[in-house]
Amino acid sequence: MTDTCAITDYEDYGSFGVLWKTVSEDCNLACDYCYYSTCGGKPGPRINRIDSAILNTFIQEYMEMSKGSASFAWQGGEPLLAGLDFFEEVVTLQAAYAPAHTAISNALQTNGTLITDKWAALFRKYQFLIGISVDGPSDIHDERRVDSRGQGSFDRVMKGIDCLRRHQVDFNILTVLHRGNIKKAKELIEFYEREEFAYVQFIPCMDFRSQEIGMAGSYDITPEEYGQFLCEAFDYWYNDGQPRTSIRFFDNMLSVCTGREAELCVHRSGCSTMLVLEQNGDAYPCDFYIHDDWKLGNVAKDSLNELLLHPARMSFLGMKKTLPAACQNCEYKPLCNGGCPRNRKWADDLSVSDPDYFCSSYKRIYAYADERMKTLGASLRRQLFTENVQRNFKGRLPGRNDPCPCGSSRKFKNCCADITVS
Ligand code: SF4
Ligand code: SF4
Protein backbone atom coordinates (compact mmCIF):
# COMPACT_ATOMS: atom_id res chain seq x y z
CA MET A 1 0.00 0.00 0.00
CA THR A 2 1.19 3.49 -0.68
CA ASP A 3 2.27 5.88 2.06
CA THR A 4 -0.65 7.63 3.67
CA CYS A 5 -0.53 11.19 4.94
CA ALA A 6 -0.35 11.70 8.69
CA ILE A 7 -3.48 13.81 8.87
CA THR A 8 -5.69 13.39 11.91
CA ASP A 9 -8.03 16.32 11.45
CA TYR A 10 -9.07 18.37 8.45
CA GLU A 11 -7.61 21.40 10.23
CA ASP A 12 -4.21 19.97 9.32
CA TYR A 13 -4.99 20.15 5.65
CA GLY A 14 -6.05 23.78 5.32
CA SER A 15 -8.85 24.90 3.08
CA PHE A 16 -10.36 22.78 0.34
CA GLY A 17 -12.68 23.48 -2.56
CA VAL A 18 -15.61 21.54 -3.92
CA LEU A 19 -16.39 20.48 -7.47
CA TRP A 20 -20.01 19.43 -7.85
CA LYS A 21 -21.60 17.60 -10.80
CA THR A 22 -24.68 19.80 -10.86
CA VAL A 23 -27.01 17.76 -13.07
CA SER A 24 -25.33 14.36 -13.11
CA GLU A 25 -24.85 13.27 -16.73
CA ASP A 26 -27.69 15.36 -18.19
CA CYS A 27 -26.44 17.29 -21.21
CA ASN A 28 -27.95 18.96 -24.28
CA LEU A 29 -24.96 17.97 -26.44
CA ALA A 30 -23.70 14.56 -27.49
CA CYS A 31 -19.97 15.11 -28.08
CA ASP A 32 -18.70 11.87 -29.56
CA TYR A 33 -15.75 11.58 -27.17
CA CYS A 34 -17.71 12.11 -23.94
CA TYR A 35 -17.58 9.11 -21.63
CA TYR A 36 -19.57 10.72 -18.83
CA SER A 37 -22.96 11.47 -20.38
CA THR A 38 -25.00 8.65 -21.90
CA CYS A 39 -28.24 10.56 -22.60
CA GLY A 40 -27.18 11.25 -26.20
CA GLY A 41 -27.89 14.98 -25.95
CA LYS A 42 -31.51 14.31 -24.92
CA PRO A 43 -31.87 14.82 -21.18
CA GLY A 44 -35.23 13.68 -19.81
CA PRO A 45 -38.05 16.11 -18.99
CA ARG A 46 -36.97 16.15 -15.33
CA ILE A 47 -33.38 17.31 -14.92
CA ASN A 48 -31.39 15.41 -12.26
CA ARG A 49 -30.22 18.50 -10.46
CA ILE A 50 -28.78 18.62 -6.94
CA ASP A 51 -31.50 18.25 -4.35
CA SER A 52 -32.22 21.43 -2.36
CA ALA A 53 -31.95 19.68 1.01
CA ILE A 54 -28.49 18.26 0.17
CA LEU A 55 -27.38 21.62 -1.18
CA ASN A 56 -28.49 23.35 2.00
CA THR A 57 -26.87 20.80 4.33
CA PHE A 58 -23.60 20.83 2.45
CA ILE A 59 -23.24 24.60 2.05
CA GLN A 60 -24.00 25.16 5.72
CA GLU A 61 -21.42 22.61 6.88
CA TYR A 62 -18.81 23.67 4.33
CA MET A 63 -19.17 27.33 5.29
CA GLU A 64 -18.75 26.48 8.96
CA MET A 65 -15.43 24.84 8.08
CA SER A 66 -14.27 27.51 5.63
CA LYS A 67 -11.39 29.53 6.89
CA GLY A 68 -11.85 32.79 5.09
CA SER A 69 -12.35 31.30 1.65
CA ALA A 70 -14.89 28.99 0.03
CA SER A 71 -14.44 27.75 -3.49
CA PHE A 72 -17.13 26.09 -5.62
CA ALA A 73 -16.80 24.65 -9.14
CA TRP A 74 -19.99 23.62 -10.95
CA GLN A 75 -19.79 21.03 -13.69
CA GLY A 76 -22.08 18.73 -15.61
CA GLY A 77 -23.21 17.17 -17.88
CA GLU A 78 -24.30 20.67 -18.74
CA PRO A 79 -24.76 22.62 -15.47
CA LEU A 80 -26.94 25.33 -17.02
CA LEU A 81 -29.69 22.71 -17.37
CA ALA A 82 -30.14 23.14 -13.60
CA GLY A 83 -31.79 26.49 -14.35
CA LEU A 84 -31.28 30.07 -13.20
CA ASP A 85 -33.33 29.44 -10.05
CA PHE A 86 -30.88 26.73 -8.94
CA PHE A 87 -27.91 29.10 -9.05
CA GLU A 88 -29.94 31.86 -7.38
CA GLU A 89 -30.54 29.35 -4.59
CA VAL A 90 -26.81 28.54 -4.47
CA VAL A 91 -25.68 32.14 -4.04
CA THR A 92 -28.44 32.82 -1.52
CA LEU A 93 -27.34 29.87 0.63
CA GLN A 94 -23.69 30.84 0.29
CA ALA A 95 -24.44 34.36 1.51
CA ALA A 96 -26.68 33.08 4.32
CA TYR A 97 -24.14 30.65 5.75
CA ALA A 98 -20.79 32.33 5.03
CA PRO A 99 -18.99 33.68 8.09
CA ALA A 100 -18.23 37.41 7.84
CA HIS A 101 -15.41 38.32 5.45
CA THR A 102 -15.40 34.95 3.65
CA ALA A 103 -14.17 35.19 0.06
CA ILE A 104 -16.56 33.04 -1.99
CA SER A 105 -15.62 31.96 -5.50
CA ASN A 106 -17.79 30.21 -8.06
CA ALA A 107 -16.44 28.69 -11.27
CA LEU A 108 -18.66 26.95 -13.81
CA GLN A 109 -17.71 24.79 -16.80
CA THR A 110 -20.25 24.86 -19.62
CA ASN A 111 -20.59 23.98 -23.29
CA GLY A 112 -21.79 27.59 -23.74
CA THR A 113 -24.81 26.84 -25.93
CA LEU A 114 -27.45 27.77 -23.33
CA ILE A 115 -25.95 31.09 -22.22
CA THR A 116 -28.36 33.99 -22.62
CA ASP A 117 -28.23 37.60 -21.42
CA LYS A 118 -30.06 36.52 -18.26
CA TRP A 119 -27.40 33.93 -17.48
CA ALA A 120 -24.60 36.37 -18.25
CA ALA A 121 -26.18 38.99 -15.98
CA LEU A 122 -26.31 36.47 -13.14
CA PHE A 123 -22.68 35.44 -13.72
CA ARG A 124 -21.62 39.08 -13.72
CA LYS A 125 -23.63 39.92 -10.60
CA TYR A 126 -22.09 37.09 -8.58
CA GLN A 127 -18.69 37.17 -10.30
CA PHE A 128 -18.72 33.62 -11.59
CA LEU A 129 -15.66 32.58 -13.59
CA ILE A 130 -16.90 30.70 -16.64
CA GLY A 131 -15.05 28.00 -18.57
CA ILE A 132 -16.30 27.43 -22.12
CA SER A 133 -15.49 24.30 -24.09
CA VAL A 134 -14.35 25.16 -27.62
CA ASP A 135 -12.23 22.72 -29.60
CA GLY A 136 -11.13 25.19 -32.30
CA PRO A 137 -12.68 26.98 -35.29
CA SER A 138 -16.06 25.69 -36.54
CA ASP A 139 -14.73 23.00 -38.90
CA ILE A 140 -12.80 21.38 -36.02
CA HIS A 141 -15.30 22.06 -33.23
CA ASP A 142 -18.36 20.89 -35.16
CA GLU A 143 -16.83 17.54 -36.07
CA ARG A 144 -17.19 16.19 -32.56
CA ARG A 145 -19.11 18.65 -30.37
CA VAL A 146 -22.56 17.93 -31.78
CA ASP A 147 -26.14 17.79 -30.55
CA SER A 148 -28.52 14.80 -30.62
CA ARG A 149 -29.19 15.41 -34.35
CA GLY A 150 -25.49 15.41 -35.13
CA GLN A 151 -25.44 19.15 -35.76
CA GLY A 152 -22.39 21.16 -34.74
CA SER A 153 -22.67 23.55 -31.80
CA PHE A 154 -20.04 26.15 -32.74
CA ASP A 155 -22.40 29.02 -33.68
CA ARG A 156 -24.45 28.55 -30.50
CA VAL A 157 -21.29 28.54 -28.38
CA MET A 158 -20.05 31.76 -29.96
CA LYS A 159 -23.43 33.42 -29.31
CA GLY A 160 -23.07 32.42 -25.67
CA ILE A 161 -19.59 33.96 -25.59
CA ASP A 162 -21.02 37.19 -27.08
CA CYS A 163 -23.45 37.35 -24.15
CA LEU A 164 -20.60 36.92 -21.67
CA ARG A 165 -18.65 39.70 -23.37
CA ARG A 166 -21.63 42.06 -23.38
CA HIS A 167 -21.95 41.56 -19.63
CA GLN A 168 -18.20 41.64 -18.97
CA VAL A 169 -18.11 38.17 -17.46
CA ASP A 170 -14.66 36.65 -16.95
CA PHE A 171 -14.26 33.48 -19.01
CA ASN A 172 -11.62 31.12 -20.27
CA ILE A 173 -11.51 28.56 -23.04
CA LEU A 174 -11.03 24.84 -22.56
CA THR A 175 -9.94 22.91 -25.63
CA VAL A 176 -10.03 19.13 -25.62
CA LEU A 177 -7.09 17.83 -27.66
CA HIS A 178 -8.11 14.88 -29.83
CA ARG A 179 -7.22 13.34 -33.15
CA GLY A 180 -9.14 16.10 -34.97
CA ASN A 181 -7.05 19.03 -33.71
CA ILE A 182 -3.82 17.56 -32.32
CA LYS A 183 -1.96 18.29 -35.57
CA LYS A 184 -3.38 21.82 -35.85
CA ALA A 185 -1.53 23.85 -33.22
CA LYS A 186 -1.03 26.83 -35.55
CA GLU A 187 -4.69 26.87 -36.56
CA LEU A 188 -5.81 26.75 -32.93
CA ILE A 189 -3.54 29.56 -31.75
CA GLU A 190 -4.50 31.76 -34.71
CA PHE A 191 -8.14 31.08 -33.87
CA TYR A 192 -7.68 32.11 -30.21
CA GLU A 193 -5.90 35.29 -31.27
CA ARG A 194 -8.51 36.12 -33.91
CA GLU A 195 -11.31 35.67 -31.37
CA GLU A 196 -9.29 37.52 -28.72
CA PHE A 197 -9.54 34.65 -26.25
CA ALA A 198 -7.19 35.73 -23.48
CA TYR A 199 -7.09 32.53 -21.37
CA VAL A 200 -6.87 29.04 -22.81
CA GLN A 201 -6.20 25.57 -21.45
CA PHE A 202 -5.76 22.21 -23.16
CA ILE A 203 -7.01 18.86 -21.90
CA PRO A 204 -5.97 15.65 -23.68
CA CYS A 205 -9.04 13.67 -24.70
CA MET A 206 -9.49 10.52 -22.64
CA ASP A 207 -10.57 7.28 -24.16
CA PHE A 208 -13.74 5.45 -23.12
CA ARG A 209 -11.56 2.68 -21.63
CA SER A 210 -10.46 5.15 -18.97
CA GLN A 211 -13.59 4.36 -17.00
CA GLU A 212 -11.80 1.20 -15.90
CA ILE A 213 -10.15 2.60 -12.83
CA GLY A 214 -7.60 -0.24 -12.54
CA MET A 215 -6.03 0.80 -15.85
CA ALA A 216 -3.78 3.78 -16.46
CA GLY A 217 -5.73 6.54 -18.22
CA SER A 218 -5.80 5.95 -21.95
CA TYR A 219 -6.11 8.70 -24.52
CA ASP A 220 -7.30 9.62 -27.99
CA ILE A 221 -3.83 11.06 -28.74
CA THR A 222 -0.36 9.56 -28.41
CA PRO A 223 2.45 11.01 -26.26
CA GLU A 224 4.36 11.75 -29.50
CA GLU A 225 1.43 13.74 -30.89
CA TYR A 226 0.95 15.65 -27.63
CA GLY A 227 4.66 16.47 -27.38
CA GLN A 228 4.77 17.70 -30.97
CA PHE A 229 1.60 19.77 -30.42
CA LEU A 230 3.02 21.45 -27.31
CA CYS A 231 6.28 22.35 -29.10
CA GLU A 232 4.44 23.88 -32.05
CA ALA A 233 1.98 25.72 -29.78
CA PHE A 234 4.90 27.00 -27.72
CA ASP A 235 6.52 28.64 -30.77
CA TYR A 236 3.34 30.64 -31.42
CA TRP A 237 2.72 31.36 -27.75
CA TYR A 238 6.27 32.61 -27.16
CA ASN A 239 5.96 35.30 -29.85
CA ASP A 240 9.54 36.64 -29.53
CA GLY A 241 9.25 36.81 -25.76
CA GLN A 242 5.90 38.69 -25.78
CA PRO A 243 3.13 36.10 -25.25
CA ARG A 244 -0.27 37.49 -26.25
CA THR A 245 -2.49 34.64 -25.09
CA SER A 246 -2.35 33.02 -21.68
CA ILE A 247 -2.01 29.24 -22.18
CA ARG A 248 -2.24 27.45 -18.88
CA PHE A 249 0.40 24.79 -19.53
CA PHE A 250 3.02 27.38 -20.53
CA ASP A 251 2.00 29.81 -17.77
CA ASN A 252 2.64 26.99 -15.30
CA MET A 253 6.11 26.40 -16.74
CA LEU A 254 6.79 30.11 -16.50
CA SER A 255 5.66 30.16 -12.87
CA VAL A 256 8.24 27.52 -12.01
CA CYS A 257 10.90 29.49 -13.90
CA THR A 258 10.12 32.50 -11.70
CA GLY A 259 10.56 30.49 -8.50
CA ARG A 260 6.90 29.68 -7.84
CA GLU A 261 5.06 26.39 -7.80
CA ALA A 262 2.89 25.35 -10.73
CA GLU A 263 -0.82 25.95 -10.18
CA LEU A 264 -2.09 22.91 -12.17
CA CYS A 265 -2.51 19.90 -9.86
CA VAL A 266 -0.87 17.68 -12.49
CA HIS A 267 2.42 19.55 -12.07
CA ARG A 268 2.29 20.43 -8.38
CA SER A 269 3.99 18.33 -5.75
CA GLY A 270 0.64 17.17 -4.35
CA CYS A 271 -2.80 16.36 -5.76
CA SER A 272 -5.68 18.78 -5.47
CA THR A 273 -7.44 18.66 -2.09
CA MET A 274 -10.74 19.47 -3.77
CA LEU A 275 -13.70 17.28 -2.90
CA VAL A 276 -15.57 16.03 -5.97
CA LEU A 277 -19.29 15.43 -5.55
CA GLU A 278 -21.70 13.62 -7.79
CA GLN A 279 -25.14 15.22 -8.18
CA ASN A 280 -26.55 12.89 -5.47
CA GLY A 281 -23.88 13.93 -2.95
CA ASP A 282 -21.53 10.93 -3.35
CA ALA A 283 -18.01 12.16 -2.64
CA TYR A 284 -14.70 11.26 -4.34
CA PRO A 285 -11.13 12.59 -4.05
CA CYS A 286 -10.73 13.61 -7.72
CA ASP A 287 -12.74 13.87 -10.93
CA PHE A 288 -10.56 11.06 -12.35
CA TYR A 289 -11.32 8.77 -9.43
CA ILE A 290 -15.09 8.60 -9.59
CA HIS A 291 -15.44 4.92 -8.88
CA ASP A 292 -16.80 2.75 -6.05
CA ASP A 293 -13.25 1.82 -5.02
CA TRP A 294 -12.57 5.48 -4.22
CA LYS A 295 -15.93 6.56 -2.83
CA LEU A 296 -15.57 8.51 0.41
CA GLY A 297 -19.23 8.58 1.40
CA ASN A 298 -22.12 10.95 0.79
CA VAL A 299 -22.45 14.55 1.95
CA ALA A 300 -26.08 13.96 2.97
CA LYS A 301 -25.14 11.18 5.40
CA ASP A 302 -21.50 11.64 6.38
CA SER A 303 -19.86 14.62 8.01
CA LEU A 304 -17.31 16.57 6.01
CA ASN A 305 -14.67 15.65 8.56
CA GLU A 306 -15.41 11.95 7.94
CA LEU A 307 -15.16 12.41 4.18
CA LEU A 308 -11.93 14.41 4.36
CA LEU A 309 -10.30 11.90 6.69
CA HIS A 310 -11.53 8.81 4.85
CA PRO A 311 -8.72 6.23 4.37
CA ALA A 312 -9.35 6.20 0.60
CA ARG A 313 -8.69 9.94 0.46
CA MET A 314 -5.53 9.58 2.53
CA SER A 315 -4.40 6.80 0.22
CA PHE A 316 -5.22 8.94 -2.82
CA LEU A 317 -3.27 11.92 -1.48
CA GLY A 318 -0.26 9.69 -0.91
CA MET A 319 -0.17 8.40 -4.50
CA LYS A 320 1.20 11.51 -6.16
CA LYS A 321 4.16 11.62 -3.80
CA THR A 322 4.97 7.95 -4.43
CA LEU A 323 7.07 8.83 -7.45
CA PRO A 324 8.55 6.24 -9.78
CA ALA A 325 12.36 6.05 -9.67
CA ALA A 326 12.52 7.67 -13.13
CA CYS A 327 10.77 10.77 -11.77
CA GLN A 328 12.83 10.98 -8.60
CA ASN A 329 15.99 11.31 -10.67
CA CYS A 330 14.49 13.33 -13.51
CA GLU A 331 16.04 16.69 -14.38
CA TYR A 332 12.55 18.05 -15.06
CA LYS A 333 11.04 17.08 -11.70
CA PRO A 334 10.69 20.71 -10.51
CA LEU A 335 8.58 21.46 -13.61
CA CYS A 336 6.67 18.20 -13.82
CA ASN A 337 6.42 16.62 -10.37
CA GLY A 338 5.64 13.28 -11.96
CA GLY A 339 2.45 14.36 -13.76
CA CYS A 340 -0.91 12.82 -12.82
CA PRO A 341 -1.26 9.59 -10.80
CA ARG A 342 -4.28 8.68 -12.96
CA ASN A 343 -1.93 8.51 -15.96
CA ARG A 344 0.40 6.03 -14.28
CA LYS A 345 -0.01 2.28 -14.34
CA TRP A 346 -0.01 1.14 -10.71
CA ALA A 347 0.79 -2.13 -8.97
CA ASP A 348 -2.28 -3.60 -7.26
CA ASP A 349 -1.06 -2.49 -3.82
CA LEU A 350 -0.35 1.05 -5.11
CA SER A 351 3.24 0.81 -3.87
CA VAL A 352 4.82 1.52 -7.24
CA SER A 353 3.88 2.79 -10.69
CA ASP A 354 5.20 3.51 -14.15
CA PRO A 355 5.76 7.18 -15.10
CA ASP A 356 2.87 9.24 -16.48
CA TYR A 357 1.61 8.16 -19.94
CA PHE A 358 2.63 11.61 -21.23
CA CYS A 359 6.15 11.51 -19.73
CA SER A 360 7.85 11.69 -23.13
CA SER A 361 5.59 14.63 -24.15
CA TYR A 362 6.62 16.54 -21.03
CA LYS A 363 10.32 15.81 -21.51
CA ARG A 364 10.10 16.97 -25.09
CA ILE A 365 8.45 20.32 -24.39
CA TYR A 366 10.62 21.01 -21.34
CA ALA A 367 13.78 20.46 -23.39
CA TYR A 368 12.45 22.35 -26.41
CA ALA A 369 11.30 25.42 -24.44
CA ASP A 370 14.10 25.40 -21.86
CA GLU A 371 16.25 28.30 -23.04
CA ARG A 372 13.39 30.61 -24.01
CA MET A 373 11.42 29.85 -20.82
CA LYS A 374 14.45 30.60 -18.67
CA THR A 375 15.04 33.90 -20.50
CA LEU A 376 11.39 34.86 -20.16
CA GLY A 377 11.33 33.77 -16.50
CA ALA A 378 14.45 35.81 -15.65
CA SER A 379 13.04 38.91 -17.31
CA LEU A 380 9.65 38.52 -15.59
CA ARG A 381 11.32 37.98 -12.24
CA ARG A 382 13.42 41.11 -12.70
CA GLN A 383 10.35 43.11 -13.69
CA LEU A 384 8.30 41.93 -10.69
CA PHE A 385 11.24 42.51 -8.38
CA THR A 386 11.81 46.09 -9.54
CA GLU A 387 8.10 46.97 -9.45
CA ASN A 388 7.63 45.58 -5.94
CA VAL A 389 10.81 47.17 -4.58
CA GLN A 390 9.48 50.55 -5.76
CA ARG A 391 5.96 49.89 -4.48
CA ASN A 392 6.61 48.13 -1.16
CA PHE A 393 10.13 49.12 -0.13
CA LYS A 394 10.21 52.72 -1.46
CA GLY A 395 13.06 51.80 -3.80
CA ARG A 396 15.32 50.31 -1.11
CA LEU A 397 16.46 46.73 -1.04
CA PRO A 398 14.73 44.47 1.51
CA GLY A 399 16.58 42.79 4.39
CA ARG A 400 18.33 39.51 3.55
CA ASN A 401 15.76 37.49 5.49
CA ASP A 402 12.73 39.39 4.18
CA PRO A 403 10.41 37.70 1.66
CA CYS A 404 11.81 38.30 -1.81
CA PRO A 405 10.00 41.16 -3.58
CA CYS A 406 9.72 39.08 -6.76
CA GLY A 407 6.94 37.12 -5.01
CA SER A 408 8.62 33.70 -5.06
CA SER A 409 7.91 33.10 -1.32
CA ARG A 410 11.63 32.55 -0.78
CA LYS A 411 13.88 34.71 1.38
CA PHE A 412 15.52 37.58 -0.49
CA LYS A 413 19.01 36.22 0.23
CA ASN A 414 18.09 32.89 -1.39
CA CYS A 415 16.34 34.39 -4.40
CA CYS A 416 16.96 37.74 -6.15
CA ALA A 417 19.80 39.08 -3.97
CA ASP A 418 21.90 39.27 -7.12
CA ILE A 419 19.51 41.66 -8.85
CA THR A 420 20.47 45.36 -8.91
CA VAL A 421 17.52 47.68 -8.62
CA SER A 422 17.48 50.28 -11.39
S1 SF4 B 1 -5.06 12.52 -9.77
FE1 SF4 B 1 -4.37 13.86 -11.41
S2 SF4 B 1 -6.14 15.18 -11.88
FE2 SF4 B 1 -6.52 14.21 -9.87
S3 SF4 B 1 -5.79 15.76 -8.39
FE3 SF4 B 1 -4.10 14.31 -8.80
S4 SF4 B 1 -2.90 15.27 -10.43
FE4 SF4 B 1 -4.89 16.28 -10.38
S1 SF4 C 1 9.16 14.19 -17.21
FE1 SF4 C 1 8.65 12.01 -16.92
S2 SF4 C 1 10.28 11.20 -15.61
FE2 SF4 C 1 10.36 13.45 -15.48
S3 SF4 C 1 9.13 13.94 -13.65
FE3 SF4 C 1 7.77 14.06 -15.45
S4 SF4 C 1 6.81 12.04 -15.65
FE4 SF4 C 1 8.59 11.83 -14.29
UniProtKB/TrEMBL annotation:
<dbReference type="Pfam" id="PF13186">
    <property type="entry name" value="SPASM"/>
</dbReference>
<feature type="domain" description="Radical SAM core">
    <location>
        <begin position="13"/>
        <end position="239"/>
    </location>
</feature>
<keyword id="KW-0479">Metal-binding</keyword>
<comment type="similarity">
    <text>Belongs to the radical SAM superfamily. Anaerobic sulfatase-maturating enzyme family.</text>
</comment>
<dbReference type="InterPro" id="IPR013785">
    <property type="entry name" value="Aldolase_TIM"/>
</dbReference>
<dbReference type="InterPro" id="IPR023885">
    <property type="entry name" value="4Fe4S-binding_SPASM_dom"/>
</dbReference>
<dbReference type="InterPro" id="IPR034491">
    <property type="entry name" value="Anaerob_Ser_sulfatase-maturase"/>
</dbReference>
<protein>
    <submittedName>
        <fullName>Anaerobic sulfatase maturase</fullName>
    </submittedName>
</protein>
<dbReference type="InterPro" id="IPR017200">
    <property type="entry name" value="PqqE-like"/>
</dbReference>
<dbReference type="InterPro" id="IPR007197">
    <property type="entry name" value="rSAM"/>
</dbReference>
<dbReference type="InterPro" id="IPR058240">
    <property type="entry name" value="rSAM_sf"/>
</dbReference>
<keyword id="KW-0949">S-adenosyl-L-methionine</keyword>
<keyword id="KW-0411">Iron-sulfur</keyword>
<dbReference type="Pfam" id="PF04055">
    <property type="entry name" value="Radical_SAM"/>
</dbReference>
<dbReference type="InterPro" id="IPR004027">
    <property type="entry name" value="SEC_C_motif"/>
</dbReference>
<keyword id="KW-0408">Iron</keyword>
<dbReference type="Pfam" id="PF02810">
    <property type="entry name" value="SEC-C"/>
</dbReference>
<dbReference type="InterPro" id="IPR023867">
    <property type="entry name" value="Sulphatase_maturase_rSAM"/>
</dbReference>
